Amino acid sequence: MKQEKTILQEVLDRGFSRRDFLKMCTALAATLGLDYSQTNKVVNAMETKKRVPVIWLQMQDCTGCSESFIRSSQPKTESVLLEMISLEYSEVLSAPSGHYAEKSIKDVMEKYKGEYIVVVEGSIPSNDIYLMIAGKSARKELEHVCENAAAVLAYGSCSSWGGVAAAKPNPTGAVPVTDIIKNKPVIVVPGCPPIAEVMTGVIAHYVTFGVLPELDHLGRPKAFYRHRIHDKCNRRAYFDAGLFVENFDDEGSKQGYCLYKVGCKGPTTYNSCAEMRWNGGVSYPIQSGNPCIGCSEKDFWDNGPFFTRVAKIPGTQTTINPDVVGAAVVGATIAGVAAHGALTALDKKKKESKDK
Amino acid sequence: MSIPTIPNSNKPNVHHEHIHSKIDLSHRPEASYETVSDSMIKIYVWELPVRIFHWVNALAILLLMVTGIYIGNPFVSASVQEDAYYSMLMGWVRYIHFFSAFVFIANLIFRWYWVFKGNKYATSNPLKRGFWSETFETVKFYALMKNKKPHYVGHNPLAQLAYWIFIGLGSIVLIITGLFLYVEPQPESLFGSAFIWTSLLFGGDSFTVRSLHHLVAWGIMVFIVIHVYLSFREDWLEKNGTMSSIVTGFKTESKHVIEDQHDEEK
Ligand code: SF4
After folding, report:
1. Residue A219 near residue A186 (C-beta atoms within 8 A)
2. In chain B, at which end, N or C, are there fewer CB atoms within 10 A of the end residue's CB?
């Protein structure tokens, strides 16, 4: 069985040299945010560990997370896919379909009981009729597959928070994975889609250390969701200088000023776009001139419009311009107070004339 | 601002039908007073710490509001293109905002201490008998309806309620959300980890916390408009020097208010 080989053997079998293997491990360690001196830990793990079986489920999704994942460049996806993990079931990438696909999922669950990882892409509808897989409701399928899993990875904003399907008015009653799976560790990896290297990084961490990465209070891996985009943004100097793009074709936008006033959600968005960047570190939205839309944040579809600064009325999915509304309410109060003053004066006159 | 004058003592003020307030705070220190005429006294309502708090608070809120509006929507910026190197406008505005915020917080803590330490006009207790019925009478009074509102030397119960909601609760929400935003870039620091619960309390995400901070700040503005108006109105109707009292501490009141005190002591 291919599963019995170590990751190193798999790499060598594919015609890479040991030197290539070490390079891959070094890059991987850097992706994981490890110190250079820790590289040997990664090498060690890859030399001795076997591949992790993965079942990749797709719920109410757009396959964007899968697309992002297979574009991972660091470590090269083909190496992750083929050497680090063993993708046993994936609706997009598996060769078998129909009954064969269902059989393969069953086989994995039995053979690797308690060892396999379940990756979930997409939200789960509360109303079963919206998504049935092989005659089973999405919820049942998810519960069933996760039963014997070692851990569950929620890839993307849909499986992490509900995503686009949960946007107002949420017709399917979409909920995140954490609402359904309560008895297994769930790692939340939000983003629409998440950065490919972040997705592979989480798996690589599991392979290397055999334990799940350190998570923050919302269940996200700290290594990748510790900072806001705004804290690491390449335009931050312009923010502090008070130099802002006012609209998309002005001089400021050519100069690369901060995108705060055209609705940048970087100040409230936790993700590592500004550090890891996209497409192998080429660029990311803000670097390319588009404000951050905050895709890795909860309810980001309802936090818009994308190109305006707004505030959300807490507890609702409604956003307003806080200064316009605030100034209007204060204006109304001033008018009310003036009217009350006039009425008080009349009342006073009336009482005084009565007293005479 | 009107100078405290002594109303014609032969003709008692029409508003004073001399209804006693039932809210009993007699366990707290009484305010000192001087007799100025047969019927009038000068009573030391707002002690120095209260007045200092008031003006420091007012100044801090002014600075916080102006800088806060700029941070939310930077309405001025350099019109000539330049390098970020030469300017630090947002940086300075944020700095002033943070500095005033810490002044605001320290000042408020100090005021909370004085709630327990000061005279009976420095405190409020909505659980006391008569508080809510007198609040209702006060509402009728402001609605220009017939009412049985007693005359208050300090704050009437409705005003006290407004302080609880805006200066009490509003400030605390602003401080907690503000400190969360302040330490947000260092989630692993001592202070950063101490404020993680804030985002969970207010909905889990940074955007909601930020929005709440912004909206509650406007709530304080609404309070200020009403507060300033009603203070002038009180001054104008009662002619008791309400406006100057927040500078000097003294109000000029009818002697009855002292009789009230004695009544309460009985
Ligand atoms: S572009 Fe966005 S993330 Fe970058 S400094 Fe400006 S507001 Fe912050």
Report:
1. yes
2. C
